[in-house]
Design goal:
Pfam families: Fer4_16 (PF13484), QueG_DUF1730 (PF08331). By secondary structure, the protein is of the alpha+beta class. The protein contains 16 helices and 10 strands. The chain folds into 2 domains: 153 residues, no CATH class; 144 residues, no CATH class. The strands form 4 sheets. It has a 4-stranded antiparallel sheet, with helices on both faces. Helix 1 runs antiparallel to helix 6 and helix 14 runs parallel beside helix 16.
Length: 357
């Protein structure tokens, strides 16, 4: 007769999981349950207001996004992890934003695409758990499924959701990635993080396009990250000038957050900036061929915008750049581009340059 499997000490296992996760390079780890009822109400209101814009996938999966046990049947707990990504010279970001000849790219995307890296680490964490207790049910997610990752991380004690809708950790700021391991293990849960934004509204005031329409409410249709990454068509004209030189994403609301004085610089080599994209000249980036774009962004999240979107975004930034012969020449070189989208934004940029005379 086979001996019965030994009982699992879940409290001990939870402590071990946290130790193993840190050994794998995660800055922090926490465990939460699956009740997201209040967050589901917030999500439904956000969708009803149309604040998701063209991100139809936000509504496509119904309640599965806010009900982990429906997305992955049998889920009892969610192990949330975070990994810091800030480069050591994060304060240099402002100098790039203030130099209209340079292209600003969100700091999270300057290195290797984080999705694969975090997912591989989560798989290694799951393998370590299996080695300890045997087979168990789990699924790893890193922006790869309908998951309310910030709400789950908050409930796991990894930070609170700030007024800009980004997760903030009291001792680490907000420059970090999140990942989740859905599991059927009845682990003890951690205490949810409390909110510490107080009366501060720096993020609301600094937003170039006023996308944070109220504390904790983001209208993605106005957000530069949405406009430069998610939106595939024409950027609304009234939002082009406020975009400045931001060609992929936007960090302003995080850069002004006082809690980011505690931000930790990444120790992950894969997140180091590539190809000097942390401050390259717009005219040089605009001259890239599609082959150069694909080669230089290989393995990076920047590819999400596609080459056409890349040129569209840079055309807007060149329209906002200080007037110069080099800027005008760069735009004229793309004036007859095969893409209607690119030609439209180049024409707008040339007109804006002329208006600076």
């Amino acid at each position: 007769m086979q001996s019965p499997a030994p009982a699992i000490d879940y409290a001990l296992l939870a402590r071990s999981i946290k130790r193993w996760a840190r050994d794998l390079g995660f800055a922090d780890v926490g465990i939460s349950g699956v009740d997201l009822a209040q967050d589901e109400t917030h999500l439904q209101r956000w969708l009803a207001d149309g604040h998701h814009g063209e991100m139809d996938y936000m509504a496509r999966h119904g309640a599965k996004r806010s009900r982990p046990d429906e997305l992955e049947p049998g889920t009892q707990r969610v192990i949330s992890v975070r990994m810091d990504y800030a480069p050591p010279d994060i304060d240099r970001a402002w100098s790039v934003i203030e130099d209209g000849e340079l292209g600003y790219i969100s700091r999270y995307t300057l290195g290797r695409d984080y999705h694969k890296l975090l997912r591989q680490r989560l798989q290694r964490l799951a393998d370590r758990i299996r080695a300890e207790i045997g087979d168990f049910g789990y699924r790893a997610y890193v922006d790869s499924a309908p998951v309310l990752e910030k709400a789950l991380a908050r409930n796991a004690g990894l930070g609170w959701i700030g007024k800009h809708t980004v997760l903030i950790h009291r001792r680490a700021g907000s420059y970090f990635f999140l990942g989740e391991l859905y599991t059927d293990l009845p682990l003890p849960v951690d205490t949810p993080a409390s909110e510490h934004c107080g009366s501060c509204r720096r993020c609301l005031d600094v937003c170039p396009t006023q996308a944070i329409v109220a504390p904790y409410r983001l209208d993605a249709r106005r957000c530069i990250s949405y406009l430069t990454i998610e939106l595939k068509g024409s950027i609304p004209e009234e939002l082009r000038a406020p975009m400045g030189n931001r060609i992929f994403g936007c960090d302003d609301c995080q850069l002004v957050c006082p809690w980011n004085k505690f931000a930790q610089a990444t120790t992950e080599p894969d997140f180091a900036p590539r190809h000097q994209l942390d401050g390259s000249k717009l005219v040089e980036l605009f001259a890239w061929t599609e082959e150069e774009f694909l080669q230089r962004t290989e393995g990076m999240a920047i590819r999400r915008t596609g080459y056409e979107g890349w040129l569209r975004n840079i055309a807007v930034a060149l329209g906002n750049a200080p007037r110069s012969d080099a800027v005008r020449a760069a735009l004229l070189a793309r004036a007859d581009h095969p893409s209607d989208l690119v030609r439209e934004h180049v024409a707008w940029a040339l007109t804006r340059q002329d208006e600076m005379r």
